[in-house]
Design a protein that fits this description.
Strand content of chain B: 35-45%
Helix content of chain B: 10-25%
CATH class of one domain in chain A: Alpha Beta
Distance between the termini of chain B: 19 Å
Number of helices of chain B: 5
Oligomer: heterodimer
CATH class of the largest domain in chain B: Alpha Beta
Structural class of chain B: alpha+beta
Radius of gyration of chain A: 23 Å
CATH topology of the largest domain in chain B: C8orf32 fold
Chain lengths: 480, 291
């Protein structure tokens, strides 16, 4: 399967060097896989697929006419990260989450970073998710982003780069946990021999993170997971995490506020709630404060939060940090708050709202990737080299009309990874990595994260909504 | 000037409603030209209040009424001491070129943008340049826009609703004080003059020559003169804001500062009755403040 015919085609390949040699940290995997016959391999693949279907590991595609739920395709060849690379990622992400939290505290308090001229005020004030309502508010334990999913990519030299931060409700972690279970079932004896770091403490780490922010340091707080409901694309994950943590999963209508305290309706009557892991965007949390038409939220919840009677993870207003224009400033934040250089750099970014950058963007559209500042999931994006003339013309108009809402980046030739196509043949496909960062009593980063793979040949879009799949991600104890 | 304000809002519902959660922006602001001496807020059915300052430092009171009710009364009484706000010196010029700096100023930036109810787009700009063909001085331009708004638009109670967008008002050519304020804000912003919305009350003696906008809460706007500060202009009455005006809350447009807003569980239809009374409350001469 991974025979000599595999071609790296000039891309940075995770498993093979340019001369076709296997990288040291993939050698054991190569040996194990070489011992498998094509038939055995196919069997394992089918067994894994069947188990995903049985478990109902699905996601929802918005704006799709055919049935909304789909299986997230899983690729049997794992992505492997050696210890020395992981250390760098771990340090880099820790540095980043600390800076992001300091930034959020700052813009909702003294706004030093604006006053000292590092970020122009208009960018903050025009950020779609900047929550004026929470100016001057002290969030529990001064932590804004408790759960962060930061997307990393590698360029054609193998250098890790940060592509974006997801500081609102990042999803995908359930796939990481389920992928591992499936792989362990398929290759029961292999993990220990290969020296793969486990990921299964994530749920207990998450629970610990959530309990850490309980109001008044309450000893045995009641934690619940608030979901928008079954139509949300990540509903499977909400159920999965609630079950893993042994906490209740609730919808807005299950919660009620009385005298600025939050209660959950149960068959035994109302039970107080201390911490809410909310998988619902700010806009929908409380119709009396944010969107009036939200039927998903809980009237009065914000007042209870303000009164310090309930804690929310993530805090309100973290979406500013997800804004792709603000992303541009993260390296400057790291410098400003920590006096350090970023350990993992950003992708070079042009802001359409800066006159000079705008000219460059408009002159180079066919080479660039253009992104809407506040969209995610691969929506609202132009990949210049793959776009038609009319698509480019269309984007040009949009950018000129609303420059604040667009950024552009050079098209990065993402690293590739051997991936199964048509059953048993391996071909290179582009991948990224979303590690999950927990920020509670300390920063904990689950070893690995979600490796997403663009299954279509040549495609650079890894999002599940756009034809992406996933791989198990192995972080090794050592470097081989 | 010492003024007392009674502001009563009564909501009545066809059927009993529950779980009413509300925010009120009713407490007059404290600032250099105005002190809120006393403030009393109550509701019927009764509730307890918590308060927080919002982004623009307005005081927001939050209250819940969870039990079933057919009517909700929100009543505030305040006693306010106002002083004449200062005016820019007669000989000071505010050249338009200085506005460029305001665009990047933390205090001004968002009062230059289109917001939910105010647009500073092409329609506003056309009217603005009709009224001020050759803008050179910011203060002069702002006054011209105020006069123009006052003359062009018909003051017509009940002709619009609280959520009427400024563009709609530009078409209708009539509205209430909120609409006049929105129009002047939009016109100012379209020329690059930062402008913000102020809600509050206006004291006027009854009888002939009584001012408009006193039967309920009033609204006007403030424009920013570069290097000097915010100047209050009332386009509904075509005058500069003086000590008869009580400022309660300020924001980008009405949506930032509604006196009351909230949600409840129950049928959508309800009736709202608002009553506002602003009276002169001459200070008690026997109890002069010390010092």
């Amino acid at each position: 399967m991974l025979s000599g015919r595999y071609a790296t085609e000039g891309f940075f390949d995770e498993m093979f060097m340019a001369d076709g040699q296997v990288r040291p940290h993939y050698r054991r995997l190569m040996e194990r896989f070489s011992n498998l016959s094509a038939e055995e391999f196919l069997q394992k693949k089918q067994a894994v697929d069947a188990s995903f279907l049985r478990l109902g590991i699905t996601f929802t595609v918005y704006g799709d006419e055919e049935g909304t739920e789909r299986i997230f395709p899983f690729d049997l060849i794992p992505r492997i990260i050696p210890d020395k690379e992981w250390r760098l990622i771990d340090e880099g992400l820790t540095q980043r989450i600390i800076a992001l939290n300091m930034f959020l505290h700052d813009i909702y308090h003294d706004q030093r970073i604006i006053k000292e001229g590092v970020i122009p005020a208009p960018y903050i004030l025009s950020a779609k998710h900047f929550r004026r309502e929470f100016m001057g508010f002290n969030v529990p334990r001064d932590i804004y982003i408790h759960i962060c999913g930061t997307d990393l990519i590698r360029d054609d030299s193998g250098r890790y780069l940060v592509l974006e931060d997801n500081g609102r409700c990042p999803s995908g972690v359930s796939y990481v946990l389920e992928n591992r279970v499936a792989m362990k079932r398929a290759f029961p004896n292999f993990f220990e021999a290969a020296g793969v770091r486990p990921v299964d403490s994530y749920s207990s780490d998450l629970l610990q993170t959530l309990r850490h922010i309980a109001p008044g340091g309450k000893e045995d707080p009641t934690v619940v997971l608030l979901t928008p409901g079954v139509y949300n694309s990540a509903y499977f994950e909400h159920c999965f995490l609630a079950r893993q943590m042994g906490i209740e999963i609730v919808e807005g209508r299950d919660l009620v506020v009385r005298d600025a305290k939050v209660y959950m309706r149960t068959t035994r009557g109302l039970e107080p709630v201390d911490v809410i892991y909310r998988r619902l965007d700010d806009d929908f949390l409380d119709p009396s404060v944010f969107r009036r038409d939200s039927v998903l939220g809980v009237p009065g919840l914000i007042n209870a939060y303000r009164a310090g009677q309930v804690s929310l993870a993530n805090s309100i207003g973290t979406g500013v940090a997800d804004d792709k224009v603000i992303y541009y400033f993260v390296p400057k934040m790291i410098k400003f708050y920590l006096g350090q250089d970023p350990i993992i750099p950003n992708v070079d970014t042009y802001l359409a709202s800066e006159e000079k950058d705008l000219k460059y963007i408009l002159d180079h559209l066919p080479e660039l990737v253009v992104k809407a500042a506040n969209e995610s999931g691969g929506y609202g994006m132009l990949i210049g080299p793959k776009a038609s003339r009319s698509e480019i013309a269309d984007f040009r108009k949009k950018i000129v009309a609303e420059p604040r809402n667009f950024i552009a980046q050079p098209t990065i030739s993402l690293s590739r990874h051997p991936t199964l196509v048509d059953g048993v043949k391996a071909e290179g496909r582009h991948i990224d990595l979303r590690p999950f960062i927990l920020h509670g009593d300390k920063v904990r980063i689950m070893p690995g994260g979600l490796t997403r793979v663009a299954l279509r040949k040549g495609s650079l879009v890894v999002n599940s909504s756009q034809g992406g799949g996933s791989k198990d991600t192995w972080v090794l104890y050592g470097d081989e | 000037m010492r003024l007392s304000v009674l502001h009563r809002t009564v909501y009545t519902y066809r059927q009993p409603v529950t779980d009413s959660v509300n925010e009120a922006r009713l407490r007059p602001l404290d600032h250099p030209f105005q002190d809120c001496l006393t403030f009393d807020l109550r509701t019927d059915p009764p509730s307890t209040f918590s308060a927080y300052p919002d982004f623009y430092r307005n005081t927001v009171h939050v209250f819940e009424v969870a039990t079933p009710h057919r009517a909700l009364t929100v009543e505030s009484r305040s006693l306010v001491e106002t002083r004449p706000p200062p005016l820019p010196p007669d000989n000071q010029d505010f050249p338009f070129e200085q506005l460029k700096k305001s665009a990047w100023d933390l205090a001004c930036y968002e009062f230059l943008q289109s917001t939910e109810l105010v647009s500073c787009g092409i329609a506003a700009w056309r009217l603005a340049v009709d009224l001020v063909p050759k803008p050179s001085d910011v203060q002069e331009a702002a006054f011209a826009l105020m006069r123009g708004t006052y003359r062009t638009f018909e003051y017509c109670p009940h002709s619009t609703q609280v959520h009427t967008h400024m563009d709609e008002v530009l078409r209708l050519r009539r509205g209430v004080c909120q609409d006049f304020a929105h129009v002047l804000i939009g016109l100012s912003r379209s020329l690059g003059i930062p402008a913000r919305y102020v809600s509050g009350y206006l004291f006027t003696q009854p009888g002939p020559g009584a001012l408009r906008g006193t039967e309920a809460s009033h609204a006007w706007c403030e424009v920013h003169l570069p290097g000097w500060g915010w100047l209050g202009l009332d386009p509904t009455n075509n005058q500069v804001v003086d000590e008869r005006y009580i400022r309660v809350a300020l924001g980008r447009d009405y949506h930032d500062v509604p006196p009351t807003r909230g949600t409840y569980r129950g049928p959508e239809s309800r009736e709202m009755k608002v009553e506002v009374e602003v009276r002169s409350a001459a200070p008690d001469r026997n109890q002069k403040p010390m010092g």
